[in-house]
C-alpha cells in the first residue's frame, strides 16, 4: 500500500486554517473600507447646503416661482406666524406641512403639546387648512397621551385663518 506524502490534517488544524482565512479576509475588507474613506478631495470645493426658504425674504406673496403648484401662501405664512411660539420640527412650504416639536407651557410643566398644520390648497378658505393638536400629561414620571380640549383645534384654526386674512389685506394695500 502506498502512503500519501501529505498527512491527513486533524480537526483542529482544519479549524485553525479556516479561522486564519476568515481573519485575513476580514483584514482585507477592513483595509479596503478604510482606504475608501480617505480622500484627496479639497473640502473647500464642496457646496455648502442652503435652505432657500429660510434665507430669502419671500414677502407676503411667498414667491410664486417656488409655490406655483403648492399651497396658499397666506395660509402658509399665517400658520407659521401663529405657531411661531412653539419650536418647529419641520416645515415644508411646497407640501404645506408644518410640524412642531413638543411645547410645554411655562405655567403648566406637567403637560405638553404638539401641533401638525396642513395647508391643503391654494385657496384661502377654511377647508384648505387642517390642524391636529396632540396633548400629553406627565403621570408618574411618564408622558401619557391625553385628550385635547374640544375648542383647542378650532381656536388655533381660527387664529391661523385670521392671520392669513391680515396678511392678504396688508399685501393688497401695498400694491
Which key features would you list for this structure?
single chain, 175 residues, alpha+beta, Alpha-D-Glucose-1,6-Bisphosphate, Chain A, domain 4, 5-stranded antiparallel β-sheet, 4 helices, 5 strands, 36% helix, flat
Describe the protein in words:
The protein is α+β, with helices and mostly antiparallel strands and 175 residues long. The chain has a domain at 67-173: Alpha-D-Glucose-1,6-Bisphosphate, Chain A, domain 4 (2-Layer Sandwich). The chain has four helices and five strands. It has helices spanning 11-37, 52-55, 73-82, 152-173; strands at 88-92, 97-100, 111-119, 129-139, 142-146. A five-stranded antiparallel beta sheet has the order 1-2-3-4-5, with helices on one face. α3 crosses α4 (152-173). The radius of gyration is 30 Å and the shape is flat. Pfam families: DUF3576 (PF12100). This is DUF3576 domain-containing protein. InterPro entries: DUF3576.
Furnish the topology, listing elements before pairings.
Elements: H1 11-37, H2 52-55, H3 73-82, E1 88-92, E2 97-100, E3 111-119, E4 129-139, E5 142-146, H4 152-173
Antiparallel strand pairs: 1-2, 2-3, 3-4, 4-5
Protein name: DUF3576 domain-containing protein
Organism: Candidatus Kirkpatrickella diaphorinae
InterPro entries: DUF3576
